[in-house]
Amino acid sequence: MKVTFRWFGQDDDSVTLKQIRQIPGMYSVVGALHDLPAGEVWPLDRVLALKKEIEQEGMAFDVVESVNVHEDIKLGLPTRDRYIEAYQETIRNLSEAGVKVICYNFMPVFDWTRSHLAKELPDGSTVMAYEKAKVEQVDTQVLIDMMGEEAKVFSLPGWEPERMKTIKRLFEQYQNITEEHLFENLRYFLEKIIPVAEEFNVRMAIHPDDPPWPIFGLPRIVTSKEQLERIVQIVDSPSNAITLCSGSLGANPANNIPEITRFFAEKNKIAFAHIRNVKIEDNGDFYESSHRSEDGSIDIYAVVKALHDTGFDGYFRPDHGRMIWGEKARPGYGLYDRALGIMYILGIWDSLEKEKEEKQYVSYSSGAAK
Ligand SMILES: [Mn+2]
Question: Transmembrane stretches, by residue range (predicted)?
């Protein structure tokens, strides 16, 4: 299992590469060209410059998150073909730079959504949270304004201001798009890009919808084990894989995350794992707790064990973290709690490794004694 850490670039992240490198076990930075709008080719020279910047600090640049999918592709508009061509070109350029995994999502209009970016817990830490009533009742524009306000210094990934301006028009365009339409549009997209990804030795890793249910009346199709299974079957290729995000899928208690993890890991379909916990309240609201199993509703130990048992050798990163120790950072993306998350996950992983070694030793010695 390779440890990675998301980084937004030196102009747009409070965390530095030098800090990231000091997290035990760190292997690769998860980067992106965040200033490029969806649909544009990522120029090779800029990708190589980012790679160089990361490698100079002693880490690899194996994973990209995200290459965003243009709305015209999700809407299935005739203009989608040129955006798909641009996407194919970006895959080629990233492969040229040695990138192995590209995380992407297929959520209409919005990326991940929360009602609070800094809800205070009794211990004084702040967390991102989702109150169903607030999201369901609030006027979309009010929520957008609030997200913009709370994001303050940093623009949130997926919530860029330019994108928000076109939102009303997008809502109209999605009015007649059902889940089945959206799935067909995903199929069209994957049938065009997976062969390119396979040829260039890149694994495409679709990220589940966050939260894993329809919001604002928009369709969502990456919310459960069944839907993920259907997606990886669209094109049968090692390049058609998933990002197992425990916190996104896990916000719905009907999703059994350790079981889903084991299911897809056994099929070698998890190219990238986002490991984080969420605490689900009785009414379905949730907040992003610490990674520790006891602190949230997901058994992170069981998730890591599922990966370990199946011989997972892909990439993982801690996902969002709490804001602790007075840190000022992009919501969810502080240094401290994500580093704690890595240590928790590595602690579980290392214990399982030791246990396995001991078992092998015992069976070897008993075998030798015969
Ligand atoms: Mn995630």
Answer: none
* 103 in active site: no
CB of 86 closer than 8 Å to CB of 94:
no
pTM: 0.91
Instruction: For residues 157 and 347, give the distance between their C-alpha atoms in angstroms, rounded to a whole number.
Output: 30
Single out the catalytic residue among 245, 287, 315, 337.
Answer: 245
Q: How far is the CA of 252 from the centre of ligand 1 (A)?
A: 14
The pLDDT-based confidence of 326 (bands split at 50, 70, 90) is very high
Q: How many angstroms separate the Cα of 145 from the Cα of each of 70, 151, 154, 208?
A: 23, 10, 14, 25
Question: The domain that contains 331 carries what CATH number?
Answer: 3.20.20.150
pLDDT band at 358 (very low <50, low <70, confident <90, very high): confident
Q: What percent of the chain has pLDDT over 90?
A: 77
Domain hosting residue 106, numbered range: 2-369
Residue 9 backbone phi and psi in degrees, to 5:
105, 155
In the chain, the number of structural domains is: 1
Cα-Cα-Cα-Cα dihedral sign, residues 44, 46, 52, 58: negative
Q: Is the pLDDT assigned to residue 369 strictly greater than 60?
A: no
Using the CB atoms, write b or e for 268-281: b if 16+ within 10 Å.
ebbbbbbbbbbbbe
Residue 357 Cα to ligand 1 middle (Å): 31
